[in-house]
Predict the 3D structure of the following.
Amino acid sequence: MKRLKIILKDKEFLKKTFALTIPIVLQNLLNNLVNLVDTLMIGKLGETSIAAVGLANKYFFIFALLTFGISSGSGILASQYWGKGELLNIKRVLRIAILIGVGGSLLFVIPGFFFPEFVMRIFTPLAGTIQEGRKYLVIIVFSYPLVAISVAFVSVLRSMNYVKLPVIITGISIMVNVFFNYCLIFGNFGFPRMGVAGAALATVIARIVECAALLILVYSHKTGDGKLGDFIHQKYNKHKETGEPFLNKLFLTKYIRTASPVIANEFMWGFGVTMYSLVYGRMGDAATAAITITNTVEQVALVLFFGICNASAVLLGNELGSNELDKAEEHAKNYIVMMFLLSIVGAIIVLMARIPVASIFDVSDEVFEYVILCITVFALYMPVRMLNSLFIVAILRSGGDTKASLFLDVTSVYLVGIPMAVLGGLVFKLPIYIVYAMIMIEEVYKLIFSYIRYRQKKWLKNIVA
């Protein structure tokens, strides 16, 4: 294949891609492995506990998508400003991302703490699952503001090609999380046996350590020009010398115009995907436990591909910001071919490993069979799903074509995914793996129109010129 030969000959492209991708993959892999360990440990408490924690985390999933929207929107601007060399504007982007993220987290903390049963009842009518989820939710919500701060910093650091620090921080956080999970879920080393509440408390402790470690390492890490913390916050204060307001109207307008469609995209898409959980929660604990385990396995299986997406978004953004439009277009083609070929290989590996992977979970024969079939569905749709992620999260957004991304994500969920979930799960009462396959039809719809939008080249522009 001609494009594959071009990729293999472009040593600089491969070097930059892997230099960014590998640390991002390691960080995501560590995060998802701890989720896997959480699921394994909580699985010892029974299927109701797995289902309860899985549904409670759907509430976090909506918040996480809000933070992802903020970080993605901020990362678009930060990447292009880094390519252009406008360091003061990177500082502005970080401040806004933290303010919006922490403010948005309070909208989730308050209902989750004061009305946990109401929140759980949205996802499931089962009394036992609601009570278990309530114990988890009232504690875990205190980690949300810390997540908002950490995600804002990590996003800006990645845009500036600092990707190793987040890996170190994630490693520290995971060790803390696993240790306290073992202590607090089961009552080991003299700690109280708290069950699902212990899992939540362990996560909060880990998030505190993560946020503190992030700030300490950022403000102590040495670069060629001094400390990284000074670089982000203090060194470039030209607005004080000129009397220019730190957050001027022109910059705020540009930020809102670029980031708000991404934030709306992730939030609306996440809310739509949460509707799937409402269907799963009404299909019984076995179905909910199976899809919770499948989602955990998916996250581990996709770390490489999401790493490529994140790396390509940064590199394309840097090139567009420095007006290297032809180079960005060429590299986008490279990423499309890479993603397609690697995702096919990944799908084959997942299919071969699905039975051994499902066997590590302590579940009933019914849930075991459901997990195997759901993972099979996931593997079959994997290439389509990964190409969609590349087009929408990396290519279109890197050039500020965020409204098209919003349209594609939202219409696919609300016009295809949700109707399929309701028909399959509630009307025809089909098995969970068939309902999951029906929902995934949205990925086919999205791929067709995202490719058409990519070919129109409206993403190929410098938005910080």
User: Anything to note?
Assistant: The longest strand covers residues 222-223. Strands lie at 222-223, 226-227. Residues 2-456 form one domain.
